[in-house]
Write a structure and sequence with these properties.
The protein is an alpha+beta fold. The protein has helices spanning 8-11, 25-29, 32-35, 37-40; strands at residues 42-44, 48-51, 57-62, 68-75, 83-89, 96-101, 104-105, 109-110. The protein folds into 2 domains: 8-39, no CATH class; 41-101, no CATH class. It has 4 helices and 8 strands. A hairpin with a 3-residue loop joins strand 1 (42-44) and strand 2. The longest helix is centred in the N-terminal third of the chain and has 5 residues, at 25-29. The protein is elongated and about 55 Å long. 7% of the residues are buried.
Length: 111
């Protein structure tokens, strides 16, 4: 926090593997979050679905009873405040759709 920038392969060299000074836990785990969006972007529980990721998205998920649901999301968030969701269940079902907010999880709303 002092404003001094030090390359990670120098600052945390103790984490580097022999012969791979640029390969440490930060360099390999930093991009890992992008790959994990598919695991937490839309999640399912017994009551329904929770949308955690706000960004351009098309997710094909299933409700607890196996009913397929396609979720399409269009937004420029966080640049803009508007997030548009299109929810298309393959068959008519009542389920809870929970949305992540900047203040934490919103109260679930039945669909």
């Amino acid at each position: 926090m002092s404003g001094k920038r030090v390359p990670s392969h120098v600052d945390i060299a103790f984490q580097a593997r022999p012969g791979g000074m640029f390969l440490n836990c930060c360099s390999v785990n930093g991009p890992r979050g992008l790959g994990m969006i598919s695991e937490w972007g839309v999640m399912r529980d017994a009551e329904g679905l929770t949308v955690n990721f706000y960004g351009p998205l098309r997710a094909e998920v299933a409700l607890a009873d196996g009913t397929p649901v396609v979720i399409e999301e269009s937004t420029a968030y966080p640049v803009g405040e508007t997030v548009r969701l299109k929810i298309n269940p393959q068959a008519a079902r009542q389920f809870t759709l929970s949305l992540r907010s900047r203040r934490g999880r919103q109260r679930p709303r039945p669909c």
